[in-house]
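User: quick one, sequence for these tokens?
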């Protein structure tokens, strides 16, 4: 995922929770936007506060977009995505309308820069 993020223009984090991974995705993207979708309103509000502590400009400029919504439907308003991470807390069944062009890969070196 890290290698794909370096050249990605749009990345989606489904089940973005605290916003930590969405922030990591944004940091790894040289010239792109990281979108996070979370269905719990309180988590969306707290994730915006968390990101704003050090990256309020990224929220204001749209490098990071955190929205409340049903991640099972994806986030079609901003599609298509170059990278999609699904990290929801429960088993997630994505809508058949959500198109993923290439499978994601995991690596032990995939970690966020602080």
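Assistant:
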């Amino acid at each position: 995922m890290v290698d794909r993020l370096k050249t990605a223009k749009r990345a989606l984090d489904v089940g973005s929770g605290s916003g930590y991974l969405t922030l990591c995705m944004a940091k790894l993207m040289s010239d792109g936007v990281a979108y996070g979708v979370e269905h719990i309103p309180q988590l969306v509000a707290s994730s915006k506060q968390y990101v704003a502590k050090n990256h309020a400009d990224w929220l204001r400029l749209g490098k990071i977009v955190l929205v409340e919504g049903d991640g099972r439907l994806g986030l079609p308003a901003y599609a298509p995505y170059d990278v999609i991470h699904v990290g929801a807390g429960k088993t997630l069944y994505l809508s058949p309308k959500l198109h993923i062009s290439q499978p994601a890969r995991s690596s032990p070196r995939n970690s966020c820069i602080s």
